Amino acid sequence: xxxxxxxxxxxxxxxxxxxxxLSLFLVTLSPALLLFLLAYVFAFNVDxxxxxxxxxxxxxxxxxxxxxxxxxxxxxxxxxxTSYDEIDRLLVAGTVDAALVLPPDFAARLGQPLQLQIVxxxxxxxxxxxxxxxxxxxxxxxxxxxQPAGVLAPPTFEVRSRVWYNxxxxxxxxxxxxxxxxxxxxxxxxxxxxLTREKELGTLEGLMATPLEGVAYLLGKTAAYVVTGxxxxxxxxxxxxxxxxxxxxxxxxxxxxxxxxxxxxxxGVSLLIASRIRSQQAAMLLVMLIxxxxxxFLAGLIDPIDRTSPTSVALAIPLPATHYIAIARxxxxxxxxxxxxxxxxxTLLLMGLLALLISTxxxxxxxx
Length: 368
Known about the structure:
About 65% of the residues lie in helices and about 5% in strands. It is mostly helical. It has two domains: about 1-45 and about 170-360, no CATH class; about 50-150, 3-Layer(aba) Sandwich (abc type-2 transporter like fold).
């Protein structure tokens, strides 16, 4: 009997979603659209940089080095500086992205350990680190260019690095799977709006005259948004793989199952919010504050969670996005399965079941 009533509620909610274009868009297409937009907002790739050079050596060797350094496609010589004050003005004005200072003994120290000074704008450390890497790679290439002429002695050893899972270190390859943990919170938002809308319109009163149990009502509504949310998952997956060329090394069926656990957790929390609030605006605000805003900064999307800080861990663990970001990146980039992701999946299941239990106990078929 309980399953029959739960299915009746789920079927009714599915029909409502199909008829309501706004709800249908919110749970199926808007995650993919939001993923498309946010992936460009959080794209931290830097391909080129404008460079200012302060050459204190003023020798043919230093000019040869600068020409080789800026002769590629990634660095452009934008200005010749003559003082640190001028470098400061160039950086503040945004004319250059970095400045390189060559010491007076540049030519004399060729073939010996040589220190070059790089001045960067640290107001955006992510971009500054990428520019530093560009200059470092270009400097290594410039040194290699000087070696055939006998200007520099060959190195005594060679260091070769290999990056796994994201070979080209493209930020979008990492950010797009992580952002799926943010955009796939939209079905939970739609669920809270649906429940509060029924309160505002008074249609919930009709249920109070029926033998429908609160658990069947909540489970039915949750099931409808989990099912339609999986459609949004597939659309987001297509955007990630088809448009952004993010490699998918995992199992799509397993990703669907793990995403269903994520939907259970987010929808459970959403039910908790909607069961205590009667306004759609208030419900939407709380869902945004709980799911969206903290997930950008506390769930490991941009910076890894500081496991040595009890405060960081305590703030990150209760967020469903924390666990799903690990799941999405693990499935997309590493192809790992339940042997590694089992703990995150179990945490999401427990979150969802606990939230549903509390929501059921708090649900009352009576007028507030």
